[in-house]
Structure formats: structure tokens, C-alpha cells
Amino acid sequence: MDPVNLFDLASQQARWLSVRQTTIAGNVANANTPGYRAKDVEPFERVLDRTRVAMTATQAGHLSGGATEAGYAVRAEEPQTAILPSENTVGLEDELIKAGEVRRSFELNTAIVKAFHRMVMLSSKA
Length: 126
Known about the structure:
By secondary structure, the chain is mostly helical. The protein has a domain at 1-29 and 84-126. 52% of the residues lie in helices and 0% in strands. The chain contains three helices and no strands. Helix 1 (5-29) packs antiparallel against helix 3.
């Protein structure tokens, strides 16, 4: 039996979320440090791009169609935080929003793993 890729993916995301939470906490801790530049972790999507996670078609009709990037404008976001007179780029509101995103992502990650674990356990009882 092959190992379950979902558990590996969920643990990788949990590690990434932990690093992002630590980075956000560091930004908040240095909110009054003159010259401090706010930091953030690269998006998890880029981490996944470097990881081999792909769907495999088992029949010819599987995985056909779908949306592509061609119909969407994809661009890099500009920093939204103004530099303060102390040349500090930390915006507490932005950091609190990021912290909320991390919390929700942790909760979603945990809920998915619990549901998948429950499904595996129920299928092994049969």
C-alpha cells in the first residue's frame, strides 16, 4: 500500500504555517523598532510548485478541461503598508489580518486531516 500523500501535504502546510506565524510575531514584536522592515513567508502555493504533487489520470476521460491562467490577469501585489517616519514598514493591522489568516488555515488543515483520518479508520473497519 502506498503512503497517503494528503498527510504529508498537511504536515508540510502545518510547518509552513508555523514559520509564517513566527515571522508575523517577529514583525509585531519589532513594530516600534526604527528601520525594521516587515517580513513575510513566500506563499504556500510556491512551495507546492517546487513539490511533486500531481493528479494522475487513470482513464482517458479523467482530468479533461478546466480553467487556465490565460483568462485571468496575474500580477504581483504592491506593498500596501506606508513607511513610517522611523522607516519601519510594519503595519499592526496588516499583521493582525495575517495572523487571523494563519489561524483559519491551521483550523482548516486540522479539520481536513481529522476528516480524512476518520474516513481511513472507517474504511479499515469494514
